[in-house]
Write a structure and sequence with these properties.
- The complex is a heterodimer of chains A (about 110) and B (about 170).
- Chain A has about 110 residues and is an alpha/beta fold.
- Chain A has one domain.
- Chain A is about 35% helix and about 15% strand.
- Chain A has a 3-stranded parallel β-sheet, with helices on both faces.
- In chain A, helix 2 links the parallel strand 2 and strand 3.
- The longest helix of chain A is centred in the middle third of the chain and has 17 residues.
- Chain A is globular, with a radius of gyration of 16 Å.
- Chain B has one domain.
- The longest helix of chain B has 16 residues.
- Classes of the chains: A alpha/beta (about 110), B alpha/beta (about 170).
- The interface between A and B is large, with 84 and 89 residues.
- Strand 1 of chain A pairs parallel with strand 7 of chain B, so a sheet runs across the interface.
Chain lengths: ~110, ~170
C-alpha cells in the first residue's frame, strides 16, 4: 500500500494510510500514516460500531490537514476490546505465502 | 514519528513466528529515502476525498479478484482493480482475499471501506465531498511494476477526472 500511496502523492493527491503495521514504514517511506492496533481486515473498527468507525475515520482525515512533513506517523491510542486469539481475523485457510515459507517462519520463531 | 500516549504494536495480532519472519524484511532504522509530498491546499470541508482499499472488494456485477493466481505464485496477487460507486453497500459486493477473514466486511463494509461514514461526514459538511468512485485492489503485490501500471495509474487518472484532492487508503 506504501507504493500506491507514494504513486498517488506524486500524481498530485494528498494521501493518508490507515495502517495496522506501521513498522513497514521503515521499508517504504509513506507521506502520512495513522497507525492503529486493530485486527487485519477491520481497521475502522468493529462491525456495527458506527461511532467508533467515525472516530477512526476522522482521525485519519485530520492528518491530511495537520501533517506538516512527509513521513509523519501518528499512533492512535485505541485498544481492541478482544484478545488477539479471540479476534478471528485469519482466513479460513493458511495463505499461500505462509504455506510457501512455513519452514522459514518456524526457524524465525526459534531464533 | 509523532509521540503520544501509545506506540502501536503492529505485530500484536500476528503469531510470533510470522511476526519474527516479517521483521527479517524490515530494517531497524527510520526510512531515510525521499518521500513524495502533496500538501492539501484547502480545508477538509472543501476537499473531495476518494477511498482506496486493498481488501479485494468487488461489485457482484464485476468479475471477482483472481485467487488462483496467488495460489500458483504466492508472491504475486491479482494486479487489477475494481471501481465501486459511492453508494455501494455490503449487499452489493463480493470480497476475495487470502490473507484475512472476509466475513466481517461482508457484514459491515465500513470496517474496511467507510463509505457510509464518509457519506455522513459529507452530509454534515465536515468533508467537502466523497468522490463518485471508490477503488479496491488486491493487496498482495511483492515488487514489480505491473500492479502500478495496471491498477494505480488508471485509478489516478479517474481520480483526476473526478476532481479528487485527497485519498484515504486502507490496507488489508
Amino acid at each position: 500500500m506504501g507504493q500506491a500511496a507514494n504513486f498517488l502523492e506524486e500524481a498530485g493527491f494528498s494521501t493518508v494510510v490507515l495502517t495496522p503495521t506501521h513498522e513497514f514504514n521503515r521499508t517504504v517511506g509513506i507521506p502520512r500514516s495513522l497507525a492503529i492496533e486493530y485486527p487485519y481486515g477491520r481497521l475502522l473498527g468493529q462491525v456495527g460500531d458506527s461511532q467508533g468507525q467515525r472516530d477512526v475515520l476522522l482521525a485519519a482525515l485530520t492528518m491530511l490537514t495537520e501533517a506538516d512533513a512527509p513521513g509523519m506517523t501518528r499512533h492512535l491510542p485505541l485498544t481492541w476490546p478482544e484478545l488477539p486469539k479471540d479476534t478471528h481475523w485469519h482466513p479460513p485457510e493458511m495463505s499461500p505465502i505462509i504455506k510457501a515459507h512455513l519452514d522459514e517462519i518456524k526457524k524465525a520463531r526459534r531464533k | 514519528m509523532e509521540h503520544n500516549s501509545k506506540e502501536v504494536d503492529g505485530f500484536r495480532f500476528l503469531p510470533p513466528g510470522l511476526a519474527a519472519w516479517i521483521l527479517t524484511f524490515i530494517p531497524d532504522g527510520k526510512f531515510e529515502g525521499p518521500i513524495p509530498w502533496t500538501p492539501l491546499d484547502k480545508p477538509l470541508s472543501s476537499a473531495r476525498v476518494a477511498l482506496v482499499t486493498s481488501a479485494g472488494i468487488s461489485l457482484k456485477s464485476d468479475p471477482p479478484f483472481d485467487m488462483e493466481r496467488e495460489k500458483l505464485n504466492p508472491d504475486y496477487g491479482d494486479p487489477t482493480f475494481r471501481v465501486l460507486p459511492k453508494a455501494t453497500t455490503a449487499t452489493d459486493v463480493n470480497v476475495n482475499h487470502l490473507h484475512i477473514n472476509t466475513s466481517y466486511i461482508l457484514e459491515d463494509l465500513d470496517v474496511m471501506l467507510p463509505l457510509a461514514r464518509m457519506a455522513e461526514l459529507e452530509a454534515e459538511g465536515i468533508v467537502g465531498s466523497l468522490a463518485p468512485s471508490t477503488y479496491s485492489f488486491y493487496g498482495f503485490q511483492w515488487g514489480g511494476t505491473e500492479f502500478l501500471n495496471k491498477a494505480i495509474t488508471p485509478m489516478a487518472q479517474q481520480m483526476k477526472a473526478e476532481g479528487v484532492d485527497a485519498v484515504l487508503l486502507t490496507p488489508a
